[in-house]
Amino acid sequence: MLAGMSIPSTGPAIHVRGLEKSYKDLRVLRGVDLDVAAGSIFALLGANGAGKTTIVRILSTLLRADSGTARVDGFDVATQGAEVRASISLTGQFAAVDQILSGRENLVLVARLRHLREPGAVADGLLARFSLTGAGARRVATYSGGMRRRLDIAMSLIGSPPVIFLDEPTAGLDPEARLEVWQAVRTLAEGGTTVLLTTQYLEEAEHLADRIAILHEGRIIVDGTLAELRRLLPPATVEYVEKQPTLEDVFLAVVGAKGRDRG
Ligand SMILES: Nc1ncnc2c1ncn2[C@@H]1O[C@H](COP(=O)(O)OP(=O)(O)OP(=O)(O)O)[C@@H](O)[C@H]1O
Ligand SMILES: [Mg+2]
């Protein structure tokens, strides 16, 4: 492969090998490997401080890894930062929307900044896609948390980046607002966008993700589909109805087993 050449789109949208990152003595990432298929939803699960945001920051070129490789949409995050940035959008934990403007004005503003033709039409299309048409003319200050997050996700779609990072997209939202955001994320993936999201909610990964990875003590200790993760546990027990293990059962079993390994 020639340096600077992009990998054909048939490869994984995100490809990470041996990623390491320390903050002084704190070894946060100790060799992270992961692959995210194009057009899929990948959930990165981990406790507070596990290093989820650190991975997202490295993949979005905001932070440099100490070692290892990472490619996003075929581009190397270390040597092709501009190409990576053109291929992604990042939605952090706190909505980046302007409260004084209306939802529609926020969208038009970003569409203008990205030099899109017909920013008004782009805005209206996204409002419709995220069920915000009725609220489009209202100031964002009057939106609920769920509406703001949906608008934030809609804004991140302007310019149609093939890869989207959502860092804890539903942190602090009530159950109804979480469902709304989940629907918005599904809409993204149905449109062919690759989504890498981080979450501390096992339930979120369970409902949303095609593939789930658990980050623990600097490494991905489990990576698979929900069905594969469930197979890590003994078979479902039969009571009156068959009870499948939840992802929480799997998480506790795996993390607990790792803890015991080290004595
Ligand atoms: N700039 C920094 N300087 C020093 N330590 C840092 C820095 N950024 C993160 N850390 C530490 O690295 C570890 C991983 O942080 P990170 O934000 O990646 O975790 P996280 O999995 O996203 O956690 P959360 O679920 O709370 O968002 C934490 O212990 C954090 O304190
Ligand atoms: Mg974080």
From TrEMBL:
Which family, according to the similarity comment?
Answer: Belongs to the ABC transporter superfamily.
The record's annotation in Pfam families points to: ABC_tran
- Name of protein: Glycosyl transferase family 8
Task: State the superkingdom.
Answer: Bacteria
Q: Which organism is it from?
A: Virgisporangium ochraceum
A GO CC annotation recorded here is: plasma membrane
Xref: SUPFAM superfamilies = P-loop containing nucleoside triphosphate hydrolases (SSF52540)
Membrane topology (UniProt): Peripheral membrane protein
Q: Where in the cell?
A: Cell membrane
* Biological processes, Gene Ontology terms: response to antibiotic
Instruction: Provide this UniProt record's keywords sorted from A to Z.
Output: Antibiotic resistance, ATP-binding, Nucleotide-binding, Transferase, Transport
Q: Name one GO molecular function term.
A: transferase activity
Q: Which Gene3D superfamilies match?
A: P-loop containing nucleotide triphosphate hydrolases
ABC transporter domain: residues covered: 14-242
